Amino acid sequence: MNYENLLVQDSDGILTVTINREKALNALNSQTMLELQRFFSEDAPGRSGLKGIILTGAGDKAFVAGADIKEFLALDAGQGQVMAQRGHDIFFLIERFPKPVIAAVNGFALGGGCELAMACHLRIATENARFGQPEVNLGLIPGYGGTQRLIQYLGKTKAIELLMTADMIGAEEAYRLGLVNYVVPPGQETAKATELIRKISSKGPVAIAKVIESVNAYFQYDEDGFAREVKAFGDTTGTEDFREGAAAFIEKRKPDFKGR
Length: 260
Ligand code: DAK
Description:
The protein has helices at 30-43, 69-72, 77-95, 112-119, 146-154, 156-165, 171-177, 189-201, 205-218, 225-237, 240-250; strands at 6-11, 14-19, 52-57, 62-64, 101-105, 108-110, 122-126, 130-132, 169-170, 182-184. It is an alpha/beta fold. The protein folds into two domains: 6-201, 2-enoyl-CoA Hydratase, Chain A, domain 1 (Alpha-Beta Complex), CATH 3.90.226.10; 205-251. The chain has a six-stranded mixed sheet with strand order 1-2-3-5-7-10, with helices on both faces. Helix 1 (30-43) links the parallel strand 2 and strand 3 (52-57). Helix 1 (30-43) packs parallel to helix 3 (77-95). The longest helix has 19 residues, at 77-95. The structure holds 4-(N,N-dimethylamino)cinnamoyl-COA (DAK). 4-(N,N-dimethylamino)cinnamoyl-COA binds next to helix 2, helix 3 and strand 6.
């Protein structure tokens, strides 16, 4: 698949997707959003042997510095709502992707960039990474799920402060608050993400997909996350993978999962 603003590299089943608009600090314009949608709905699901996806930004200054401010200046309320719904749908594709998706946050992750990182399953931040939801500076609120996901990660106390003050936080504070999984020196974020995907891909693939599904269900208020977990647990116990995993444990050997 051809992209204008995404670079996609495959290394042994691990796809690194780089948002490639370095001059605009990788801001999410509509073309980039469209390409993320195509990547997560058409390209990635069709790849055989896929272990996981790393999302990052070009250059060493920014992961993504937000939605492209220059593009949304002319939007009216109706268009804004349509755009927000579209953005939500794309970020849900990421959050619900059945293989691990890890954000390698290599600099500014602001506004839509922080929202994009939060839609990923895990986040690795470089020491120079900066996170924030500065939309109120522009008289906006986050439009890609930021008001909801920031609370999920930080709790209401800190989330509402950051949303109202537009303050940025550094990588160490983001780690302390539970927004990121690891902080690494610049240049090591992809290696750390690769290490995690390798570890996760040695587990039962159906089980990993069901963990993602069940954890996401916790935050869907129209649905009982515990009920979803019961159903997902039942689904995993019926798999060949579960029988293989249990047998391997008993026989003290490594499991050979087939993903069914
Ligand atoms: N959009 C477009 N261009 C951007 C950009 C952005 N978000 N952020 C940076 N750039 C561009 C700059 O304009 C500049 O371009 P040139 O002037 O060279 O052409 C280039 O990237 C380099 O930026 P700076 O010169 O500003 O670099 P500095 O190191 O001085 O500052 C900075 C770095 C990250 C602190 C600064 O660039 C900055 O404050 N950027 C804006 C951060 C921000 O406010 N981001 C937007 C948050 S609001 C919506 C849904 C979602 C959203 C909106 C609507 N709807 C559904 C309608 C989300 C909104 C947001 O994300």
